[in-house]
Amino acid sequence: MKSFHHSQDRRTVIVPKHERYGSFGSALLLCPDDTLLCSYGRNDFERCVHQKVIIASTDRGRSWSAPNVVAETPGLVKTMRGESLTRLSDGRIAMVSNLPVAGPAGKTLYDGFEIRWSHDGGANWTEPARAADQGTMPCSNRIVENADGSLLITCRASAVAKPVRKVVMQYRSRDRGATWEGPRVIAEAPNLLLTEPSTVRLRDGRLMCVMRETSYVGFPSYRMISTDDGATWSAIEPMPIFGHEIFLDQLKSGRLLAAYRHVGGYAATWAWVGDPDERAGFRVPGTIRTRTAPALADDCLRIRTTGHGETALYHLQSPESAQSTIRLEAEVRCSANRINACALHVAQAGWITFHPDRIALPDYRISAPIDLNIFRRFEILRRDGQLEVGCDGKVLLHLPALQRRAAQKTFYGDLHPDNVTTFGTRSPFFGDLEAEAEGEAAWRSVRMVITDPSRADVEYDWSARSGLLPNQYEEDRMIEIENNYGGPGGFYFAGQVAWAQFPDGEIFAATGRQYLDAQARRSSWIRGCRLREEDFRMTEDVSSEP
Predict the structure, then answer these.
(1) CA 388 → CA 132, 211, 391, distances in Å?
(2) CA distances from 205 to 19, 228, 281 (A)
(3) What is the pLDDT of residues 353-395, one digit of tens each?
(4) β-pair type (21-30, 36-44)
(5) If DSSP codes are grouped into helix, strand and coil, which group holds residue 69?
(6) 541 lies in a domain?
(7) Rounded to whole angstroms, how far apart are CA atoms 343 and 429?
(8) Does 420 score more than 50 pLDDT?
(9) Between the N and C ends of the chain, which has fewer C-beta atoms within 10 Å?
(10) Are 418 and 405 in contact (CB under 8 A)?
(11) Pick from 422, 447, 467: which residue ends a domain?
(12) DSSP letter string over 261-279?
């Protein structure tokens, strides 16, 4: 995968690290005169206030104006998001801000939003006018202006209304933003947690809305289309990205560019370019951090690990629930496994580890002898609360009653972090610098069929004979802007991202990076990155990948 994390010729600092300030969550807007506006949130640790800040650049992001503090509120906030910026056809710029409300245990939540307007290119702003009482708008989203002059805002659902629902909602204004109708739910699914929409109007008149799925178990991002200015929307369909706070827009070429906080195995800022009608669907992501990269040779995928910090993990689709049936076949050889070198995790069933002389279910402390110095084909079945592992038609391990892990409680429902199916090393599902694996394994093929209660069967079929890595699509089609793998104390991670394209085609992206400062406070800074559309590989040679 192409990465610009360390490309000094492409990188610039928008807001530097500062002992007094933490600045994070940028939104970008390119004005007709090529001025860039950047909106971000700033904590002033000295005065204990939070500020909404605008800065401007007239030299394509190389230098920036002094901060223009648009608003200030007492106290510090945990996530210093910027404010959504949209320029309408009449020249006005809208700044949408979410409204804080008191949550349980003294926690601050957000519900409803207000709009400020600028009539002079962002230099001055009106007093805010409350636009909605429910839902919040991601700073990565913008107001959509329809051909008839009506305006649309897509937003997250309320975090306060009971019961809390993870759905995507929509508001409409028929008087240029003076008043708003709604909300109306436009995307929901019984087994998905949908949130954080980013919606754009394509040049052919269609609207496209992409959204985050927030179960944290490997469900991808989703998208839907409207052909009637948001009156109706298509069913959602999976995308090949795993993104939070996606910033979506259309390039001058007509292709789409989605930049986002990547959560498909580790923390990073990634970008993807694709055709508006491309339906790549789910694509396997990988968490790859090894001294020797996994490689295809002799019709197998060889994974060699040598110890501390190493992970090679491929994330398959997750089932809807514990009531789903999962059938897996894996052809694998393990010639050495000092620790965590060869394993497969079955969603809500646990790890199966492979060793030269045995297979094991370490969560249950049982194993079965088998010579794995040669390739073996294993059949794995999770059904009706049971797990069965066989080889060549013979059952080797059988669990009549799986021990389900307790759900992780959140204000929006129960999460099941172990509802994940992976193969490769036995590693944390999200990149961890302290992970350890040492050994040598080879995988010839992995096949999976999921039968869910409420959706069509999910099928996956990968073979090393195809000449493709399990995560070939992301290796070919994604670009890494920031890499925040693991991070000190597991804290350092990438934040929001926004981008704009200049008339000559250059793309400028702004990314937030968080860290713990010397006083152990959550602080952050903002960097820029220059991209070109030719940085993205657009090929069809991975179309055979499942």
Answers:
(1) 52, 36, 10
(2) 47, 8, 23
(3) 999 999 999 999 999 999 999 999 999 999 999 999 999 889 9
(4) antiparallel
(5) strand
(6) no
(7) 12
(8) yes
(9) N
(10) yes
(11) 467
(12) EE-SSS-EEEEEEE-TT--
User: Is the domain of 247 the same as that of 314?
Assistant: no
Edge-to-edge order in the sheet of strand 151-156: 144-145, 151-156, 168-173, 181-187
- Output the six-digit token pair for 244: 């939070």
Give the Cβ contact number of residue 365 at 10 Å.
7
Indicate whether 136 and 71 sit together in one domain.
yes
Side-chain half-sphere exposure of 474, counting CA atoms within 13 A: 26
User: 241-250, 404-413, 431-440: which range is least confident on average?
Assistant: 404-413
Closest listed residue to residue 288, CA positions, set 421, 419, 423, 418? 423
Domain count, the chain: 2
Confirm if 128 and 116 have CB atoms less than 8 A apart: yes
**Domain finish residue from 467, 492, 515:** 467
Contact (CB, 8 A) for 17 and 523: yes
3-state secondary structure 99-146: EEEECHHHCEEEEEEEEEEECCCCCCCCCCEEEECCCECCCCCCCEEC
Number of Cβ within a 10 Å radius of residue 245: 22
Q: What angle do CA 96, 179, 166 make, to 5 degrees?
A: 55
Q: Are residues 70 and 132 in the same domain?
A: yes
Q: In whole angstroms, what is the distance from residue 306 CA to residue 287 CA?
A: 16
Determine the Cα–Cα distance for residues 271 and 482; give it in Å rounded to an integer. Answer: 10
Residue 522's identity, in one-letter code, is R
The rounded distance, in Å, linking the Cα atoms of 269 and 408 is 26
Query: CB-based burial of residue 114 (10 Å sphere; 0-12 exposed, 13-18 middle, 19+ buried)?
Result: middle
Residues 6+ apart with CB under 8 A from 472: 542, 545
One domain, residues 291 and 281: no
Peptide bond between residue 294 and the one before it cis (omega within 30 degrees of 0): no
For the entire predicted model, the pTM comes to: 0.95
Are the C-beta atoms of 333 and 441 separated by less than 8 Å?
A: yes
Residue 137, domain extent: 2-95+105-181+189-285+476-535
pLDDT classification of 102: cutoffs 50, 70, 90: confident
